[in-house]
Amino acid sequence: MDAESLRLAERFLPSTYLKQARDADISRRSRIHQLLEKRKCPDEGWDDQTIEGLLVDLSKMDSNNFPANCGVGERESRIFSGLVAQRHYRLGHGIGRSGDISEVQPKAAGSSLLNKLTNAMVLDLIRRIGIRGTQACLVMPMATGMTVMMTLLSLRESRPQAKYVLWPRIDQKSCLKAIVTAGYQVVVIENVLEGDELRTDVPALKEKVSTLSPENVAAILTTTSCFAPRGVDRLEEVAKICKEHDIPHIVNNAYGLQSTKCLHHIQQAGRVGRVDAFIQSTDKNFMVPVGGAVVAGFDAQFIEHIGKMYPGRASVSPVLDLFITLLSMGVQGYTSLMTQRSEHMDYLRTRLEEVANGFDLQLLLTKNNPISMGLTIPKGVGTELGSQLFLRGVSGVRVVTPNQIKTIAGVTLKGWGAHHPNYPHGYLTAAAALGMTKADVDTFMGRLEKCLKKISSKLRERGAEDDNGVESQ
Amino acid sequence: MDAESLRLAERFLPSTYLKQARDADISRRSRIHQLLEKRKCPDEGWDDQTIEGLLVDLSKMDSNNFPANCGVGERESRIFSGLVAQRHYRLGHGIGRSGDISEVQPKAAGSSLLNKLTNAMVLDLIRRIGIRGTQACLVMPMATGMTVMMTLLSLRESRPQAKYVLWPRIDQKSCLKAIVTAGYQVVVIENVLEGDELRTDVPALKEKVSTLSPENVAAILTTTSCFAPRGVDRLEEVAKICKEHDIPHIVNNAYGLQSTKCLHHIQQAGRVGRVDAFIQSTDKNFMVPVGGAVVAGFDAQFIEHIGKMYPGRASVSPVLDLFITLLSMGVQGYTSLMTQRSEHMDYLRTRLEEVANGFDLQLLLTKNNPISMGLTIPKGVGTELGSQLFLRGVSGVRVVTPNQIKTIAGVTLKGWGAHHPNYPHGYLTAAAALGMTKADVDTFMGRLEKCLKKISSKLRERGAEDDNGVESQ
Amino acid sequence: MDAESLRLAERFLPSTYLKQARDADISRRSRIHQLLEKRKCPDEGWDDQTIEGLLVDLSKMDSNNFPANCGVGERESRIFSGLVAQRHYRLGHGIGRSGDISEVQPKAAGSSLLNKLTNAMVLDLIRRIGIRGTQACLVMPMATGMTVMMTLLSLRESRPQAKYVLWPRIDQKSCLKAIVTAGYQVVVIENVLEGDELRTDVPALKEKVSTLSPENVAAILTTTSCFAPRGVDRLEEVAKICKEHDIPHIVNNAYGLQSTKCLHHIQQAGRVGRVDAFIQSTDKNFMVPVGGAVVAGFDAQFIEHIGKMYPGRASVSPVLDLFITLLSMGVQGYTSLMTQRSEHMDYLRTRLEEVANGFDLQLLLTKNNPISMGLTIPKGVGTELGSQLFLRGVSGVRVVTPNQIKTIAGVTLKGWGAHHPNYPHGYLTAAAALGMTKADVDTFMGRLEKCLKKISSKLRERGAEDDNGVESQ
Amino acid sequence: MDAESLRLAERFLPSTYLKQARDADISRRSRIHQLLEKRKCPDEGWDDQTIEGLLVDLSKMDSNNFPANCGVGERESRIFSGLVAQRHYRLGHGIGRSGDISEVQPKAAGSSLLNKLTNAMVLDLIRRIGIRGTQACLVMPMATGMTVMMTLLSLRESRPQAKYVLWPRIDQKSCLKAIVTAGYQVVVIENVLEGDELRTDVPALKEKVSTLSPENVAAILTTTSCFAPRGVDRLEEVAKICKEHDIPHIVNNAYGLQSTKCLHHIQQAGRVGRVDAFIQSTDKNFMVPVGGAVVAGFDAQFIEHIGKMYPGRASVSPVLDLFITLLSMGVQGYTSLMTQRSEHMDYLRTRLEEVANGFDLQLLLTKNNPISMGLTIPKGVGTELGSQLFLRGVSGVRVVTPNQIKTIAGVTLKGWGAHHPNYPHGYLTAAAALGMTKADVDTFMGRLEKCLKKISSKLRERGAEDDNGVESQ
């Protein structure tokens, strides 16, 4: 209620009652003023009512919601269905303009402001949880794969002749597709096996750079978060190579914001070498529906350049989800989720070790992977374990068996699934991701043990036979 | 309520009352069965309750909503904020898989089904409103500009050496950016002035094809819907050239689905020549928030190929909006909106003619533009008219004054805004778009007249002076 | 957005864009200021966004929504379920205090204000649609029957010895129960048959007053809106009797606000005689869910007295529904609904006459019933017609056959359903109530004709036999 | 999704993915089947999605939501505002019929079923948390005061001559008003002071019964939950008197369901003596908005009789809130809230004792009050303490100073606020009610200490003076 309304309300109510309402309102408003003034993610999360109030206020700033608006253009944000209007808080104009995804729209001051604030909050959060040197970020209304692609496309203008993207192998299709669809040739750098773990082959990478000649290399695309037994890439060393040879360095940090280790490596890489952009998904890091990604970097101009390459407007929806979520979480909420995640990672490890001991299996030692773990599976077991877990309501486990071969967009990868042509074990992976609960771990372990028991007894009955890998996602 | 529940409910209620409920339920269900069986947009729109019921049912099919689900992957669609969960009907997994935007997700049967059904309904609707030969379509969760870009990127694999996109000029930034960001060189084909109208210069286009050699041409990008005084491109003739020379032909049909004329030209072009894909925005054609586009074509394989080029998952949000809206509209709702639009176009024309007569101005004759119209503005008037209309709550009018020059992504265009280097008039445009009401026309005309009167009297006072063009969007 | 926020937003957006938002906001705010200042129902309805914005603002004024609230009482409006909180806009404290249903609550300034405003809007509307002399009204969070009962209970204090309520018969259970539950004895005044119509037997009423002696009569309870063939009671004449003999006069105006005739009679009765209170349902007159009633009158003190008799707090829910609906309708919306209703009444009459002619039936002439009509049914027809219509999805038709006897709360009524011991016809009723559409009439007539045809042919086959009355509600 | 839909969905999705969806659906359905079959509150709470799904299903069973419905009655549940329709899940017909609040409506099978299920769940819960002998209950869509009044009105028919209600004093207006508005004379039975505590004066009660003669006593109205220093009434002894003298016994158990002690006394009273009905508020016991009450008893017929006295229909809204909340809580949720409440009661007591020691005050010993506690206040302190706490955002504290006199509905009570004409202390009360958190206690204690410090220093400065009591609600 504005001051005038509260004054008029005194005709109905004693002013002492209204004083309290005014005080409460002032405390809510001051949060909003701070957000606008400091451009920071609030420390403490807001209640839903304050968030919704702000959304309604922002929505009223868009021309399609002006009581006296009269639209004679081709896009006037008339929304046919009330269900649709409501679920978007009547925001209809999207974000960006023809020229630039982060430009403000005259017709949509509210949506534009929401977009700016979201970007500001994400930037603040990224800095505060660990990548202090971040200079700019953009919330892109498309997922990680597309954002990697857009980032690669943004490099072409300044390196028109470069046609190779060097890619320390990770067995995940999207990033491979992102390179190919962007029109580049993929140069696979196979990982090296160190103990159970797979790490970046830095000498091979260096070798490749000099073979191809740096000016022909459009970018090196490294990865932080990934399925075990692959570890985080050796970001600092790659960043140094990139700096030395003036090669763009893009980091696929898909779900790495939730891990202090990933954050640390990016911050360090940016300090000691070159990192042009690091890209992360909003769904995996911020517990929102799939649909957005954040591209961030240490050079504000390059990030802005990506925004300027984006042709046309875009959905505000992923930005809106993030806006709501960040206000609701606050920095404290996020860091406490990170802490819990780390604890559940430890708990999951302990529980998997017990199972490993009980069934004579092996928990793969992958200390450079802070999120995902691998457990070897009994010889001769494959698909059936994955399917059984899936049908028991366990989602997200991957069962990888050796010797798969896959060709994606013209690139053939031996030992598909394992990030390595000859990984010595079949195994399954499990991850402790943001939002996982201790109860989730317990449920998983219960179901896993049940499946392993069943399979073990079957195996004892019949002779084991080889089987194909299946992902239960 | 399922049959068993209704049976159990007889312990509480007389069975005659329940019979009616059962009958009503059967009629609702039969709509859903038909949707699944026929894969068609319903003729008559559904009520919101039936739509929401179906959405809840679909949402329950996604693993994150299974009561007993246990997620140990990195992406388990845990949604932090209740506000966010609710506005997405708890759909969190997005659409597509790493490999393909239209692939189904094991974790998300409901979202996948929703996506398939939406695509099926859009295809059916496009066929029934006029482009009968359409073989396939994809709802892309990004707007027109990005979808044009993705479509162009999809051409590279089969035409790796082609680097030019021929582009009959339209003064709109997104499509130009789409070409450039996709890594192609833009070859501008200037329009020819026929009376007041600007049309495709087919001879110049032919000439360019032979100069550059067809195999170097990645595609010709034509446009249907556009601001007056540009008309629809000569699609049929371009399509014939493309067929003859084996050049891909992409049609930017941004808001053309709402116009029978645009639909007719695309259908004819596909019949007599080559059209690889036509692309249209979901917001402008279906009255949903900005964020989606439909790419459709006469060759199902090419459309599928575009889907397969998409790296990673994507937001279900634009698809969901369309799903709700199509079920709510039905084909009848859509065609009746089209009819109204056409009537309001006539009404707007009549009213603008009156104003033209009253103020000694000229309504530009542009019979090949079925949506937008141009009215010349008094000599010496420019920015001020646009600003005044904008501040009076008129959105969407563009005021174009001659002799603007603009450089976008390295391409310099003379006479920017007018689609022509030397258009002889300054003018303003107004469009009769889907959802516009007669009251909108009346309000607009009232405000326009007021502004023109004010300006006329000012002009009489002082001598007129030249001014720059400003768009009121 | 408050002024400070808009000022701070200039760091993100050009101030010209914000100017528009500010202007739009001012126009919205001025509506709210007017509402608070004038205490009147707005002429024109508001859009949902403005309504929701105001609701959020009111909700924030309740202590349970204060960010820093700390509750140590027994009722602190903690709401367990998010679904429940949301559907009530987080209003939890209800209305009223122990002492008075219309008293303001210190803990709930927002709910209290909402309540006051709703009462003010209803009062204004009642005056403007016809009962100009109304001095006060109370929206009661309970339906008509209970509100009649509460009003009767409020009379006891000043007339402790009076034990009779005189009641011109209307065959509807609630009002009868209201009298009995309030602890009074019902004195039925049978109606007189005038042509097809049933009217108040004023002489019999006078006679009864003098027989019982006025001081023993607690009240006379008349009725306006009712099922045909009963007409509106002769309010003016009863009001005069009440004035003369100093007897309270309560009018059951259940769904009469929607009819200018009912309004006119109440206004006149209040002018020429005595009307203590007239009571109407919110669902039937304002198209909200069942649950509220309005008690209004020409003497503000008596209405306030009723409020003060109410023990304890009450649900805000019916008040909230009315608040939203009145803001959404505006006075213009309401009067236009009234006009449509009246037109559909005429249309229904015309169509029923056609059917009457076609099937050799008779449309009962009941010019004093402005809402409900009666059509005789073929001899020997009863239950089956009602059931058939019900099963065909026609609700609200009553089929009345003569000679039913019913005892309710100790009162035996002959000819139950017909408001008369010996009504000469069997008949069915249909009403043109607020919100009915022309399409409803057409659908009804189609189904009615179908049923009548079926029944006629059956009747021709077999000999007709007597049947019992059944209401299809 | 029904079986047929899932079968048809196989045209779009692999049947293995659908199998999972089917399994999940079966588990959800089985909960609904159990609810319908067992008529019990679920042990474990349901997720919101299942609850909403059921609500949508129930709503579809009401005729106003039938796709082919055609209404020609006066009440067809047409809902004008979409906001209103939505917040009620499109349930519009309310509950009950003219004759009986618990009767089913032919037009509203869904609402009727919802009502029946809610009543069944409440009955089950009441039994399981302690009053095992409960035979029936009714959720009334009005708050405690009105429900007490309705219950008293229901007694009149069988005891027409009885005009007194004996009332062991409790200083709360609603119950007093309930008696008076129902038309009875209040006979106040003053409490006796036992230590710090006020208890029922059983001898005085007996005395009064014989003085007035039992047949003139309509009922004895006792109270369980109340502000300290009053304790729970001596229910068992009163119940025995009632049994012996054949006097109805109504228990005002306003917020006593949350306390095992209150439950125990009611159960015992019902076993050893006579309890006709015990009445409790839904908001205070179930954390829903104000608006409902539950009347329950050991004799199903009497409870049904109350329902049959209710004239007309009523709002479904309070029932709906309870339905949602009980499904969401489950019995386990409720009992765990009870346990927490009890722990916070202990914690509050400990903290108040500390303050008592620190400020030389006294925590009143009231072991028969399981919810509310009293702390004496410094001599000469009154209003100011209440106001200061209120303005600091503490709600629900009552500050009581001796020697207040109040006349309510003709009944004069000395020592108002203290339940006793001469309570020896001024004091404040604080309650540990359902849903209170440990943080609430801490915040309260912090603010209380601050206020006490401020007041103490003021008192030291000036000489203390007497002051009036003020409630901070």
3D architecture notes:
- Four copies of one chain form a homotetramer.
- Chain A has 15 helices and 17 strands.
- Chain A has 473 residues and is of the alpha/beta class.
- Chain A folds into three domains: 1-30, no CATH class; 109-330, Aspartate Aminotransferase, domain 2; 334-472, Aspartate Aminotransferase, domain 1 (Alpha-Beta Complex), CATH 3.90.1150.10.
- In chain A, the strands form four sheets. Chain A has a seven-stranded mixed β-sheet, sandwiched between helices. A four-stranded antiparallel β-sheet of chain A has the order 11-16-13-17, with helices on one face.
- In chain A, strand 14 (405-408) and strand 15 form a beta hairpin.
- In chain A, helix 5 runs parallel beside helix 13 (317-359), helix 6 runs parallel beside helix 7 and helix 9 packs parallel to helix 10 (260-272).
- The two termini of chain A are 49 Å apart.
- Mean pLDDT of chain A is 94; it is low at 464-473.
- Chains in contact: A-B, A-C, A-D, B-C, B-D, C-D.
- Chains C and D meet through helix 3, strand 1, helix 4, helix 6 and helix 7 of C and helix 3, strand 1, helix 4, helix 6 and helix 7 of D.
- Strand 1 of chain C pairs parallel with strand 12 (394-395) of chain D.
- Chains A, B, C, D: Its EC number is 2.9.1.2.
